Amino acid sequence: MANDRELELPGLAELPYTSVINGFRVRPGLFQVKGAMAVPGGVSFTVQSSFGTACELCLFHRKEQEPYAVLPFPEDCRIGNTFSMLVFGLDIDEFEYAYRMDGPYEPSRGLIFDKSKYLLDPYARAVTGQSIWGIPKAFGSAYHARVVEDVFDWGGYRDHRVPFQDMVIYETHVRGFTKHPSSGVKHPGTFEGLLEKLPYLLELGVNTIELMPIFEFDEMAGSRTVDGHQLVDYWGYNTVCFYSPNTSYTAAVEYNHEGTELKKLIRTLNANGIDVILDVVFNHTAEGNELGPCFSFKGLDNNVYYMLTPDGKYYNFSGVGNTLNCNHPIVREFILDCLRHWVIEYRVDGFRFDLASILGRDEDGRPLAKPPLLESLAFDPILGHVKLIAEAWDAGGLYQVGSFPSWNRWAEWNGKYRDDLRRFLKGDEGTAYAAVQRICGSLDLYPPGYRQNASVNFLTCHDGFTLYDLYAYNEKHNEANGWNNTDGANDNNSWNCGAEGETDNPQVLTLRDRMRKNAFAVLMASRGAVMFPAGDEFCNTQFGNNNPYCQDNEISWLDWDRLKEHQDLFRFVSAMIEFRKHHPVVRKQTGPAHCGWPDISLHNGIAWNGEITGLTRQIGILFCGRNESDTEDDGVFLAINAHWESHWQELPVLPEGYSWKLEADTSDEKPEDPVRPFDGKGLEIAARSVAIFSITNR
């Protein structure tokens, strides 16, 4: 299948060259096509620099450190701040490339040009020397790029995506998902290995996969040894190149066809009804601060791409050294180009933006009322249907949950849902009112019409305790990270249920099992999209480590043997996902119920009791409306008892022809047996448990 971009360039091979440089015929390239692109007869190379005075293209043989050819860009290959040169006679299989940029060296102004440094093309579709995980890169901080030929056939692709409020998002680390020997896949730690688990994903019932960073990053950058164990950049939140997929996540080496395995994964997941969202990191890069390496942006235009202080140092709103200057026109255009690339070339269905509040700061770090970048993303035609999800805070103290600039296009990781529900479910006093708000869609944060489809509800994610650890540890245990347990959050709102860490106390184990089921039951019965990290459904543990960003080992890898040990929880989670899919009133407001009941009503202990006192630890919420066919009433009653004593929950009297059905009861310790019967009028809700009822006309 020919590359579409080649089809637009007929007869280019016959164009005359204008210069001969070091034996290569060259002419002005495709100035509006950024990066390197193969064309009939050669390759066009385009790079930009606002302050660079001269540029060289360096060609390398594969795996060699010194270039076999250096081609200065002639004067006729520069227009404005863009250098573009078409080099004839290049075979993309036989070379790698980088740039060298000359210009002023005035650090106080943020200008640090060094014509001796090899610079990675920011638009590179593939980075060399990265394909083997855990091996120090041969050239240190000097990265080379490859030209990629796109031959992937998407077949009968259709632009179909799961509606926002229907999303059940499964946050997944590509390597950690199958790297553990217990995964049983042929290609552990890869895109192919993840695809091998497709039957499992379908059985679980999730319909959206959110992949933690899969852009090219160098896991060995900053690697260190602690207690004899090598620690690396496992999570990948230090991007080397934003256009390139991580080649160490592929089962096969894909020279000059990088991305094929990832595209196959996305195409297959989509074909099975599963959308793919990428976790993207546009708040900083792997170049760090003034002590960090210079391998790309710094050498091309340091004072354009990064937020700098008046004396040329780096603002650090990301917490890891530098901050991208996202609202500079050049950087804004780069980010837009990049996201379009992933939507067009990889057909991704959405993006989750790490520390997204940085994307709304100006060049001095001040929050903007209407950030140009966020507005551009909201209204970009190519991005028109993709999900835009913000982690609406940053390391500089800006917290915008409920106030992130939206244009009714941006959704948010609802950190307040996480915090409020964690406190309520463990029985904290005075948290019931906040819990009701979060379960009902956080209407105080996202008013209907103005901020619809905005709340991504979650209780756990990659950053923090797993669900198992949330109810097994009161304190973080991050000693293995080598920072004397000073890293990671301290305000976890966790509860060990009576014993810290592993225990054989049967009462503690029973309570922990119930608390995990409570969490999943409430999450799946909350309005808005829902998300949980891979492994929570079978009690994945990080052994109390709430910040395993550097742990490429059993601390972070999913132990699939735990799926066998915790089948009860897996079946419960799968059943709750299926229940959510069959009851639209849980996910969203539907048509008004025939019986005339409101869309949402409170019944705290007694039917139609909406009173919430500071001591309330019991909640009853009724969602009511129409079913999917819009012909009959659909109702779901969520009864939560976060108290350490049991409490009676009365149910509203139903119209004639309808009855209540008990769908789930987390106090049931024998899930293989039917849930306990009730008289249809109410139920004694056991201590620290959740019950879910539905309206049926049968």
Kindly state the number of beta strands. Answer: 32
How much beta, percentage-wise?
15-25%
Contiguous helical run count: 15
Chain-averaged pLDDT = 93
Specify Rg, calculated over alpha carbons.
27 Å
Task: Please explain how this structure is put together.
The chain has 698 residues and is of the alpha/beta class. 19% of the residues lie in helices and 22% in strands. The protein contains 15 helices and 32 strands. A hairpin with a 2-residue loop joins strand 7 and strand 8 (82-88). The longest helix is centred in the last third of the chain and has 19 residues, at 506-524. It is elongated, with a radius of gyration of 27 Å.
How are the SSEs ordered, and which strands pair?
Elements: H1 4-7, E1 19-21, E2 24-28, E3 35-39, E4 42-48, E5 54-60, E6 69-72, E7 78-79, E8 82-88, E9 96-102, E10 105-106, E11 111-112, E12 126-127, E13 145-146, E14 168-172, H2 174-178, H3 191-196, H4 198-204, E15 208-211, E16 215-217, E17 224-226, E18 229-231, E19 239-245, H5 260-271, E20 275-280, H6 297-305, H7 329-346, E21 350-353, H8 372-379, E22 387-390, E23 410-413, H9 415-425, H10 432-439, E24 455-458, H11 467-470, H12 506-524, E25 529-533, H13 561-565, H14 567-582, H15 584-587, E26 600-602, E27 618-626, E28 633-641, E29 647-650, E30 659-665, E31 682-685, E32 689-696
Parallel strand pairs: 14-15, 14-25, 15-20, 20-21, 21-22, 22-23, 23-24, 24-25
Antiparallel strand pairs: 1-2, 2-8, 3-4, 4-8, 5-6, 5-9, 7-8, 10-11, 12-13, 16-19, 17-18, 26-27, 27-28, 28-32, 29-31, 30-32
